[in-house]
Specification:
With 525 residues, the protein is α+β, with helices and mostly antiparallel strands. The protein is built from 12 helices and 17 strands. Helix 4 packs across helix 7 and helix 5 crosses helix 6. The longest helix is centred in the middle third of the chain and has 42 residues. The two termini are 32 Å apart.
């Protein structure tokens, strides 16, 4: 299941109707906390009165508090949609500019339009995209009203995108076309899609949404017009499958079936309750008229349009960043070499000092006290001197993570488990201390499907640099792993230690041979 967007509600102004829903997003489900459907009574030409009415209506809703992050939804009629095919000669980083040029011709209004697009997986050569453009006036009105009401606008999309997702998900590669229909607060919307993506989207205003018979008749008319538009677009008459987004008990369904009057038609009702849990106090008719708004907000970002955050072209500066990173790593290696040389010189000097200390060990009790104090200092230095290259380990693990379109990394943490041992037989000095440090890394996140998490787990198991253990129950859309390694860097072999402990004992948190420290009692992070 795709992660729902991080918004607490959605607002749509459809004609003289205002619709709003509050959303509570969980890890596996979405709950509608409340809904509002009300009609605008003042004169539509008075923009200030209209805005004041919207602000007052939203201020009285306890489930949509001021300061909440909301999605502004535009009705289908407020934007121009177009399927565009670009030749293969158009580079990926040029598509955005080409789309803006094409869509600027679709809107004959003043001001710079808001334009966004998403790719379509259609057969044939070239690049296929679905482009949309909304006028600057529509964007300013939708965004401005929400902000004046005290909300933070997270996105601006179209109400038909939820229907488009339903149609595209149910389209089969046999050439059949899926027509999805639904209601918004003030209009009937319909879309058509085949296996290659969205074909078209339409809308028509509703005079009286409370009249079920008139609404069903308008739905039937729009269904026939959509079918005719599909035939004109494809130049053929494919088989049609119809979906209607509604709520259980809605009387419009029966009236719509009678109005279409085609028993051979594949007709399916998609219940709004499959998208989100609605409160029991909300009437089925209100759920039906707000279902398209909920479905559009819950559509994943890669499959929807957002006029507030349009899709950006590919990053052409990635190669330059890689060169800068490579130069940085070379600098790290150079500094590491200098540090190693300095450490060896320091170790040699300490050995000479310890030789002198052995000659004067028997001179006085005060020297013995000084020796004990010095040994404590050496112990502390050996303890604090253990180092682990966390950047290298995190980079090695991040390189093996799935792409962001398939997985979202929730958390990656690390902690070090140092172990310091002193061998009296080796004498007093640096050579008598053995230092061993183990890195324990916790990785957790979510995946769009089980195969992605399984593939990640298989890659890490095959990587002999780490010992891996799964944390918690095995979930289809999540992974939580614990990795342990003795290597200070992924590309450096683990150092030899006088009191080694197996990685499995460290991961399990069990006590090993004498001197080992369990990983759950380790220090550092």
């Amino acid at each position: 299941m795709s992660r729902a967007p991080s918004v607490q509600g959605a607002v749509i102004i459809d004609g003289r109707w205002l619709g709003a829903v509050g959303l509570l997003t969980g890890t596996t489900s979405v709950r509608v906390t409340g809904g509002l459907l009300t009609r605008h009574q003042p004169d539509e030409s008075d923009a200030d009165a209209r805005t004041a009415w919207v602000i007052a209506a939203l201020a009285d809703q306890p489930w949509l508090r001021a300061g909440a992050r909301v999605a502004a939804v535009l009705p289908r009629a407020h934007a121009a949609l177009k399927r565009i095919e670009f030749p293969e000669s158009v580079a990926a980083n040029e598509v955005r500019s080409a789309v803006r040029l094409q869509m600027a011709r679709q809107l004959s209004v003043s001001g710079e339009p808001a334009v966004d697009y998403r790719p379509l997986e259609r057969a044939g050569a070239g690049r296929h995209v679905l482009a949309a453009a909304a006028s600057a006036e529509s964007m300013a009105r939708a965004k401005g009203v929400a902000e004046r009401a005290g909300f933070r606008v997270g996105s601006v999309g179209l109400s038909c995108e939820g229907l488009a997702r339903l149609a595209e998900d149910r389209a089969a590669p046999d050439g059949a076309v899926v027509v999805a229909m639904g209601l918004t607060p003030g209009s009937v919307e319909s879309v058509a899609a085949d296996a290659g993506g969205l074909l078209l989207a339409r809308s028509a205003d509703i005079e009286d949404p409370s009249d079920d018979a008139a609404t069903a008749a308008l739905l039937a008319i729009e269904w026939r017009r959509t079918i005719m538009a599909v035939h004109a677009t494809l130049g053929s008459k494919p088989s049609i499958r119809t979906l209607f987004l509604s709520s259980v008990g809605d009387t419009v369904i029966a009236a719509l079936r009678r109005a279409i009057a085609d028993p051979s038609l594949a007709f399916e009702v998609v219940e709004a309750e499959t998208l989100a849990a609605f409160p029991d106090s909300m009437q089925p008719r209100d759920r039906t008229r707000l279902a398209c708004v909920v479905a559009s907000v819950l559509t994943p970002r890669e499959r929807r349009l957002d006029f507030l955050h349009p899709r950006m072209p590919p990053d052409t500066s990635a190669a330059r960043r890689r060169r800068v990173l490579m130069a940085f790593l070379i600098g790290v290696f150079a500094i590491g070499g200098l540090y190693t040389t300095a450490t060896r010189s320091l170790s040699s000097a300490r050995a000479e000092l310890e030789s002198v200390n052995r000659q004067i060990a028997a001179l006085s009790e005060s020297h013995e006290r000084a020796l004990r104090a010095r040994l404590r200092v050496e112990h502390a230095r050996a303890w604090t001197g253990a180092r682990m290259d966390w950047l290298a380990h995190f980079r090695s693990l991040c390189d093996q993570l799935p792409p962001t379109s398939e997985s979202v990394l929730d958390e990656i943490t690390g902690r070090s488990v140092p172990e310091i041992a002193y061998a009296p037989a080796g004498g007093v000095g640096g050579k008598a201390w053995s230092t061993r440090i183990q890195a324990v890394i916790d990785v957790s996140g979510s995946a769009v499907k089980r195969e992605v998490a399984d593939a990640l787990r298989a890659r890490l198991v095959a990587d002999d640099r780490y010992q891996i253990k799964t944390k918690g129950p095995d979930l289809p859309d999540r992974y939580a792993l614990t990795l342990a390694t003795d290597r200070p860097r992924p590309d450096v072999a683990p150092p030899a230690a006088k009191t080694p402990a197996t990685s499995k004992e460290a991961v399990d948190g069990k006590k090993g041979v004498k001197g080992n420290v369990p990983i759950d009692k380790g220090s550092g992070s």
